[in-house]
Amino acid sequence: MSIAVAFEKARAEAGPAGRERPGRALVVGCMPAGFPTVEGSIASMKAMASAGVDVIEVELPYSDPVMDGPVIQKASDIALAGGVRTRDTLRIIEAVAATGVPVVLMTYWNPIEKYGVDGFARDLAAAGATGMITPDLIPDEAEEWLAASDRYGIDRTFLVSPSSTDDRIAMTVEHCRGFVYATSIMGVTGAREQTSSAAPELVARVRAVSDIPVGVGLGVRDGAQAGEVGRFADAVIVGSALIRCVLEAPDESAGLDALRTLSADLAAGVRAESDALAPLGSLARPEAAL
Amino acid sequence: MTASLAGLLPDVAGHFGRYGGRFVPEALVAALNQLDAAYRHAMADEAFQAEFGALLRDYAGVPSLLYRASRLSESVGANILLKREDLNHTGAHKVRNVLGQALLTKRMGKRRVIAETGAGQHGVASATAAALMDLECVVYMGEVDTERQALNVARMKMLGATVVPVTSGSRTLKDALNEALRDWVSTVEHTHYVIGTAAGPHPFPAMVRDFARGIGVEARRQCLDLTGTLPDAVGACVGGGSNAIGIFHAFVGDEGVRLYGFEAGGEGIGSGRHAARFSGGTPGVLHGTRTYVLQDDDGQTLESHSISAGLDYPGVGPEHAWLHDNGRASYLPITDDEAMAAFQLLCRTEGIIPALESAHAIAGILKIVPTLREELGREPTIIINLSGRGDKDVETAGAYFGILK
Ligand SMILES: Cc1ncc(COP(=O)(O)O)c(C=O)c1O
Predict the structure, then answer these.
(1) What is the pLDDT of residues B136-174, one digit of tens each?
(2) Do A161 and B168 count as a contact with CB atoms less than 8 A apart?
(3) Which residue of B has its CA nearest to A159?
(4) Which residue of B has its CA nearest to A160?
(5) Can you give the pTM of this predicted structure?
(6) Quick one: which of A107, A75, A126, A109 has its CA closest to A240?
(7) What is the per-residue pLDDT across B66-114, written as a single tens digit (0 to 9) for each?
(8) Chain A contacts in chain B segment 144-173 (CB below 8 A)
(9) A69/B23 Cβ within 8 A
(10) How far apart are CA B276 and CA B241, in angstroms?
(11) Cβ distance A218 to A191 under 8 Å?
């Protein structure tokens, strides 16, 4: 399924009352490929999807993930130490996409450049991925990627940040297709700080120039917070909290159980009525990176 | 063409040919733009240049001497001139860059600086500038490096900086850089990231070069004063590339002057344990810039190895990548053992204990002298950038030579 179709379906659902936009937000769940093993990561992603995660974001493990906090770093290190290769990531995407869930890849740029940009776009499309998120590639440097992603019909997600100027937000969303990723706080994944107003403000700034769906990420831990973010975002992106289910589990089946429980909680969160949700501001709680 | 282009590069987006640029999270773009504007403004501002120049002169001891090393010259059969950056305050060329960036930090109204460090030299220089200018300073340093450069850790702490040992990845310079970037993504409003070398996203490679390029401007003039001619060659060690681009830049337009960069060959290219990006790496993207990188077939960064912490880095500044590809400069690997032999030679012939990094430059020049003599049919005149002094390396060198246990 393409991500555009997934957004359309979610918009057509009843959704919580009082939400800015029709329907409900999608839940995007992130998991590094090959963590803790190739088969283990496929099982995790399938479990997430079957328990209510709408879109699987596969992260390609990279040696120098500067946008990621300690949890994703650790999971990526485990995957790399296990010998996972770029080709394995494509194989994982293929296995997960075959179940019908939309799959997007999140990847730092160097592994793609090394693989060959055009060839990677071709193989990514063949594996069944619908889009690709590029945390360290800005449209200014993306000429080759723009051409390759157009050629093979891969959606492009670039990031916008609270520090982006209005001009840059407009320029960035113009180059996105599928959805744009709003990094709601200034910080790395898993970190949580600053005021809760940054995220809705940033989303509003995107809405002022474009109709493109907006995904909001960084720091969502449970259904209540997902519901809160889902009130103003089109997609709620959850990474570290899901990965921690696997990292902290005593064995694989306990990890899958924890993943299913959290996935179901997140899915319920984006469907719940506002008064059942955590009060706005719970997202503002300062907390060290986890 | 190379010569005329050199004065113009990078382009406005920070590209040196196909290298350089900005491969960063969007969250950093605003800060990089702010920095770029402040840097451009400062470069054109006489008041800034005067303040920077006075600080370098009165505080850091610049211009450093250009010293004719007679006994070394005699022993190698070349006329060797040493650019004595080891005599600068804090003991290395790095002080030029940090004083420039600290002044810019104040201009941007920021109160906190962060830095990454390998050998500890850049950390010490950053802590020094922060103390002088009343800025809060946090230095990220790989845990492995905090152990092999314990003396510099103590110096940074004495100067009032906080040193954060980095335990992720290979626990060396590249991981310290990752951690500093992560800090910066969340603190960019009030914090300036003082990158310690001519690498990273635009405008760092150009800006760090411009703060360091006085080395070459001075050396060129000093050489003319001393010998009446330009040198036949200029040599420097290349970690991230700041001391090398600092001394090269003023000579790029002098076509008769050969430029040599020496990178860490570690235990030899064949061993896989080295930091030779040009001999053992390929073009890629690391830490915000496109350049030569030590990487595997999947584009994962490989760990680098060198006896010298300051050269132990898997990437290199993009301007060097450009000078390499267009042939204006040559880059050669020097093994740990070759560097240590040169280290000892300089100690014994000149009474100068060099930094292990700088020892690579001495060793490199020793290697190319025979070829140069043959080509020129006479004794070549060569400027070597003695980028730093070896006090910080006494423990490593002492262990290598069996003087210390
Ligand atoms: C004395 C000295 N020389 C050289 C270097 C290498 O850095 P660069 O290549 O930026 O000059 C270092 C780095 O710490 C250093 O301390």
Answers:
(1) 999 999 998 898 788 899 999 999 999 999 998 878 888
(2) no
(3) B26
(4) B26
(5) 0.94
(6) A75
(7) 999 999 999 999 999 999 999 999 999 999 999 999 999 999 999 999 9
(8) 168-169
(9) no
(10) 12
(11) yes
- Ligand 1 binding pocket mutation candidate from B94, B262, B291, B323 (most atoms within 8 A of CB): B94
Does an H or E element contain A89, and which? helix A86-97
Tokens of A23: 């329907």
What does DSSP say about strands B381-386 and B233-237: parallel, antiparallel, or unpaired?
parallel
CA A136/CA A157 separation, integer angstroms: 11
Confidence at A186, pLDDT banded by 50, 70, 90: low
| Residue in chain B nearest A139 by alpha carbon | B26
Residue of minimum CA distance from atom 14 in ligand 1: B310
Q: Which atom of ligand 1 is nearest to the CA of B212?
A: 11
CA distance B294 to B302: 5
Q: How far is the CA of B242 from the centre of ligand 1 (A)?
A: 7
* A201 contacts chain B (CB < 8 A): no
- The pairing of strands B329-335 and B381-386 is unpaired
List the catalytic residues of A: 57, 68
Instruction: Order the strands of the B329-335 sheet from edge to edge.
Output: B66-68, B79-84, B381-386, B233-237, B258-266, B329-335
Residue B94's nearest CA partner among B114, B120, B113 is: B120
Position with higher pLDDT, A16 vs A190: A16
pLDDT(B238) > 60: yes
Cβ of A136 within 8 Å of Cβ of B287? The answer is: no
Q: Is the model's pLDDT at B193 over the cut of 80?
A: yes
Asked whether the beta carbons of B318 and B20 are under 8 A apart, the reply is yes
Angstroms from A77 CA to nearest CA on chain B? 8
Mean pLDDT, chain B, rounded, equals 95
DSSP string of A186-211, one letter each residue: SS-TT-B-S-TTHHHHHHHHHHTT--
Residues of B in contact with A138 (CB under 8 A): 22-24, 26, 29
Chain B hits for A165, CB-CB cut-off 8 Å, are 30
Provide the CA B59 distance to its chain's centre, in angstroms.
Answer: 20
